[in-house]
Design brief:
By secondary structure, the chain is mostly helical. It has a domain of 52 residues. Helices cover 65% and strands 0% of the residues. The radius of gyration is 17 Å and the shape is flat.
């Protein structure tokens, strides 16, 4: 980052704290709430990567890193969507 004229993040910003907080709060409500919070975070991250990989004029090594990370985030989101899909929920018959 610094090699490209940017500044490395030294501490957590409000957005990072909020992102972690969603998962922590979800943990108080159970596994499904944690997965929903994680999915929400992955949606934001995936959207950000989608926008970034569309930017023109970046060095090849940066583009390659963004492409790799974007693909990884898409896998995370897909996994969470599969786990949260109605057909993947365990069926518990009424007593």
């Amino acid at each position: 980052m610094e090699g490209l004229g940017g500044k490395a993040v030294a501490k957590a910003d409000f957005k990072r704290i909020l992102t972690k907080g969603k998962v922590v709060l979800g943990g108080l409500m159970g596994d499904r709430a944690v997965l929903e919070a994680m999915k929400s975070n992955e949606e934001v991250t995936t959207k950000t990567y989608r926008k970034s990989v569309g930017e023109a004029g970046m060095p090849a090594h940066v583009r390659e890193a963004l492409d790799r990370n974007f693909a990884d985030e898409q896998r995370h989101l897909s996994w969470l969507e599969q786990r949260l899909a109605p057909e993947s929920r365990p069926h518990h018959p009424a007593p």
